[in-house]
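Pipeline run #58 for the internal structure catalog. This entry was flagged by the ingest filter as a single-chain record with no existing model, so it goes straight to prediction. Upstream metadata was stripped on purpose; only the residue string is passed forward. Reviewer on rotation: M.T. Logging verbosity set to normal.
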Amino acid sequence: MARLDKAEAAAQTERFRRYLREHHQPITRPRDLVAQVVFLAEEHLSVEAIRRELRQGGEQVGTATVYRTLELLVESGLVRAHDFGEGFKRYEAMTAQSDHEHLICQRCGRVVEFANERLERMLPVLADEHGFQHQRHRLEIYGVCRECRQRELGPL
């Protein structure tokens, strides 16, 4: 399931264009294309995955342009960059449901998003117990996904 439908992706693209105008940056077709790929993605994409998606769509966008566009998207607050310890970043569109955590498979690199209401309620309590005022958090759980375990051990 895509994070954003086409109308939401178009609205986010327009927000990105507004950000570019406000920061005196050129609005270009390659920037729009990179933004749209990220906004319509069903997973956390690497730069290489973005370039592959663009090539499959018949578009040639240089690697440097992809990197610079992603940097602008992150600065604008429309996209979040994640470093899951793979040696490269992955990117995801910020949505209304952006409060979520990640399970990362250390075998295949699969990233699963989850939200947990109890966890969200506990974080401010845990922070308070240690004298912190909770402002934001990021939780990443590393392990081995069910599919990789099944491949290695047989059916569970």
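catalog note: Residues 47 and 64 are 10 Å apart (CA to CA).
catalog note: The chain has a mean pLDDT of 87.
status: ready for reviewer M.T.
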